[in-house]
Amino acid sequence: MASDDSTFDFTDNSHRRYNPLTDTWVLVSPHRAKRPWLGQQEAPSKLEIAEYDESCYLCPRNLRATGSKNPNYGSTFIFPNDYAAVKLNQPGLSQGRGNDSERDQLFKTSSVEGNCYVICFSPKHNLTLPLMMHKEIVRVVEAWISLYRQLEEEANQGKPFKYVQIFENKGTAMGCSNLHPHGQAWCLSTVPNELMKEFTSFKKFQDSFSKHMLDSYMEIELSERERVVVENDSFVVLVPFWAIWPFETLVVSKTHLPSLKEFNAKQQSDLAAILKNLTTKYDNLFSTSFPYSMGTHQAPLNASEEEKKISWFHMHFYPPLLRSATVRKFLVGFELLGEPQRDLTAEQAAERLRTLDGITHYSENLD
């Protein structure tokens, strides 16, 4: 029998939470987090990684796998991915005979073109975002903006570029094949699925309430403050109410910025500052170099006025760690066959992250 709101305990009773960005649900089972944990507890780890690795394909002056040589770069360095996931100037793909038959409805294909880029954050092989100085992360943000503008210009000159997805996979747990701190940018002739879901939801909300969804959501979160992790003048970091991953966060611009292109110098600096703060908190959570996948969501390249209206710059962080440096969350069983599920509530995760130091890195206290 369902209980009424007066007796329902969100920290103990199972419930579902709605994700308005993607029109999906997540099952929350907070009572399961009260199970005794007898698993491994690790001591703080300090990886001994050299500042330069002569075998690394991304370090300055080194040869890459295809034989190209990196310049002796001294700051953030971007180059076309030698093994791009999408290509330019490939043969066209027939769209079939139409959409009339059952087969046409069941076996659809569509051509896609584009290019991919590698973004080396720093020439130093061992310098992850939380270990970088603020001014160094500002250069990363500036590089993102420069690439966005460059791709817009290339699109204006005829290249089939519509959307650029900027992201980072940090750590081997996230499939990163090279530990030199770097991100990627995949530029496609189409808008990816997750973005289309968000744009659809944003437009529906705006049509109903004459206000952007993230503007409304942020107002409520900043008022309630239960899920706020950290904020500055330009950005706020939240554990979203509908989070799937244990310590998932959302970085949202406080004002309507459709894309990186609209950032002023203050907002560039503030984004760098809050990324350093958040990633330092992540590393301090389990005293380890914290793995995650993170990326930007923003307006398409050369966006129309309507696309700018429904776009709002934000970043998603999806870290897999659950209880310690080696205990990970996996989407298995019910989560693969039914819907995502979590034990730790968003409010509990936010409290854990909020109380962690976002300035001093745990490794600074190690011998």
UniProtKB/TrEMBL annotation:
| CDD domains reported in the protein's UniProt record | GalT
Which positions fall inside the Galactose-1-phosphate uridyl transferase C-terminal domain? Answer: 199-364
- Residues annotated for UDP-alpha-D-glucose binding in this entry: 32-35, 65, 81-82, 169, 175-177, 184, 329-330, 334-335, 341
* Positions of the Galactose-1-phosphate uridyl transferase N-terminal domain: 7-192
Q: Which SUPFAM superfamilies match?
A: HIT-like (SSF54197)
Question: Keyword set for this entry?
Answer: Carbohydrate metabolism, Galactose metabolism, Iron, Metal-binding, Nucleotidyltransferase, Transferase, Zinc
Q: Where is the active site?
A: 182
**Pfam family of this protein, just one?**
GalP_UDP_tr_C
How far does the signal peptide extend, from start to end residue?
none
Q: Which reaction does it catalyse?
A: alpha-D-galactose 1-phosphate + UDP-alpha-D-glucose = alpha-D-glucose 1-phosphate + UDP-alpha-D-galactose
Q: Give the Enzyme Commission number.
A: 2.7.7.12
Q: Which cofactor does it need?
A: Fe cation; Zn(2+)
Gene Ontology MF terms in the entry:
UDP-glucose:hexose-1-phosphate uridylyltransferase activity; zinc ion binding
Task: From the UniProt record, give the pathway where this protein acts.
Answer: Carbohydrate metabolism; galactose metabolism
Q: How is the cofactor bound?
A: Binds 1 Fe cation per subunit.
Query: Which residues of this UniProt protein bind Zn(2+)?
Result: 56, 59, 125, 180
Q: Which family does it belong to?
A: Belongs to the galactose-1-phosphate uridylyltransferase type 1 family.
Matching entries from PANTHER family are given as: GALACTOSE-1-PHOSPHATE URIDYLYLTRANSFERASE
Protein name in UniProt: Galactose-1-phosphate uridylyltransferase
Q: Which organism is it from?
A: Lachancea mirantina
